[in-house]
Amino acid sequence: RASDKPEDETIKEEEIDLQKVTEHVKTLQLQLRIVFITIQIVQDLLAWINPIGSLSTMLFLLWMAYANYVKYIPALCCLMNGLVLLLNKVYPKMLKFYQKPYKFVVLSTK
Predict the structure, then answer these.
(1) Which DSSP letter does residue 48 get?
(2) Secondary structure of the chain in HEC code, one letter for each residue
(3) What is the four-CA torsion angle of 26, 32, 34, 39, rounded to 10 degrees?
(4) What is the pTM of this model?
């Protein structure tokens, strides 16, 4: 009930800081861009556009499975994601290659 609360505990409305909102939107945009680039890289590997790169990636993943390092992949992905965010904050010009348009390869069954 509203009558049970003292007057001092009323919730104060805060103004929305547009600068913080735009920073968070830019961070979310970078995160989504990384996801789309990862999807593009996986599609390129599966389409064998660069056979040497696909073969070496698959051999590396087989070695990781053989050496039982698969359990470290999620932690490694989180570490790399944090590193990308840190680099974007410290050196924003360094990650301009993320601005490229994406080219998605459609895998066909032909």
Answers:
(1) T
(2) CHHHCCHHHCCCCCCCCHHHHHHHHHHHHHHHHHHHHHHHHHHHHHCCCCHHHHHHHHHHHHHHHHCCCHHHHHHHHHHHHHHHHHHHHHCHHHHHHHHCCCCCCCCCCC
(3) -160
(4) 0.55
How confident is the model over 50-90, as pLDDT tens digits? 889 889 989 998 999 999 999 998 998 889 888 878 877 77
27: Cα separation from own chain's centroid:
10
Give the position of tokens 């390129």: 44
Query: What type of residue sits at position 73?
Result: I
Q: How many residues does the chain have?
A: 110
Residue 57, token pair as written in the block: 């990636």
